[in-house]
Amino acid sequence: MVPERIAAADRLAVLCGPTAVGKTAVAVALAERMGAEIVAADSRSVYRGADVGTAKPTPDERRRVRHHLLDVADPDEAFTLADYQRLARQALADIRARARLPLLVGGTGLYIRAVVDDLALPPVSPDPALRAALEAEERSHGPGHLHARLAGLDPGAAARIHPHNLRRVIRAMEVVLRTGRPISAQQNQGIGSVVGTVTMVGLTMERAHLYRRIDARVEAQLASGLAEETRRLLHQGIPLTAPIMQALGYKEMAGWLTGAYDAVEAVRRLKRNTRRYAKRQLTWFRRDARIRWVDATDLTQGSAIDRVHAIMNSMLFRQVEA
Fold first, then answer.
1. How far is 36 from 67, CA to CA, in rounded Å?
2. Virtual CA dihedral for 124, 129, 131, 132, nearest 10 degrees?
3. What is the DSSP letter of 241?
4. Helix (H) or strand (E) holding 63
5. Is 262 exposed, middle or buried (0-12, 13-18, 19+ CB in 10 A)?
6. DSSP states of 110-161 as a string?
7. Intra-chain end-to-end CA distance of the chain, in Å
8. Average pLDDT, the chain
């Protein structure tokens, strides 16, 4: 158990890093050692019925450690950053009320930042008509059009959002068009009322080794029924434009299942796109000087757990005694 004087304080531990680096297994073991509960920071695992493609913790892992913010939205639901932040704040308060340590775990950098920096998010609810118009504009002018337009309206947001991440591009456009103010400026205003002191550790790996793990994970997901899970979502009437169907795994499988390309091409695209996503994740996290990095390339899982645990324990004690 985490010492009472740490658990009683407003502490927050964060474990971040790219997809397939091994965060889940390390986080579960850490939580058991430190008397923590896990708050997921993943933009895909919030959706119900999307389990294989999001690599959610296994039933056994969820029995061992209490997890928060998994399966909190329907697959056709528009789940915003503000929704995530609101639920994360509630989870932190709930965990601390029981004298436990919140452990924020994931690879969605903006979700982590929304919690860690307590961002003041623009109160702009989704506008389906505007979003549909923007999607039509992108289709009419071609890929990258909206991102280029966003660069003129909100250079800060355009610099942080990948041109292929159409959902986030449209959200940034939606905010600036409806409020007249860039989303990047509005997100930079932290409230700073509920976070407390933060300890951040990142897992990383030599790139070729990480890419091999990504390829192995894709093969494992396919063997576990990723295509069948995608087919089930499509049969439920989840549109291809829904956020979950634009997510890694589901987008590529849906392209195959709807006849855009064959199964071999779907797998090739999924592996390629996942590698690209991991690279973007690392670029995002590397910009945050608060993160202490653990290179797990040559470490066993147990050694990686020990290394992260030692860093977090040291920093928590140091912060409490300061």
1. 10
2. 170
3. T
4. helix 59-64
5. exposed
6. HHHHHHHTTB--------HHHHHHHHHHHHHH-TTHHHHHHHHH-HHHHHHS
7. 22
8. 90
Element (H, E) at 61: helix 59-64
Whole-structure pTM value: 0.82
Residue 1: partners with Cβ closer than 8 Å, 6 or more residues away: 7, 34, 35
The Cα 43–Cα 77 span in angstroms is 12
The token pair that represents 152 in the structure block: 């003129």
pLDDT of residue 183: 76
DSSP letter string, 159-221: HHS-TT-HHHHHHHHHHHHHHSS-HHHHHT-B--SS--EEEEEEEE--HHHHHHHHHHHHHHH
Per-residue pLDDT at 195: 62
DSSP 75: T
Residue listed under structure tokens 């990948």: 162
Residue 164 has which token pair?
Answer: 């292929």
Delineate the domains of the chain, giving CATH numbers in brackets: 4-120+190-321 (3.40.50.300), 128-187 (1.10.20.140)
Give the pLDDT of residue 319.
Answer: 52
pLDDT value at position 157?
A: 85
Give the whole-angstrom CA distance, residue 262 versus residue 256.
5
Percent helix, percent strand, percent coil in the chain, to nearest 5: 55, 10, 35
CA 281 to chain CA centroid, Å, is 9
- CA–CA separation, 315 vs 311, rounded Å? 6
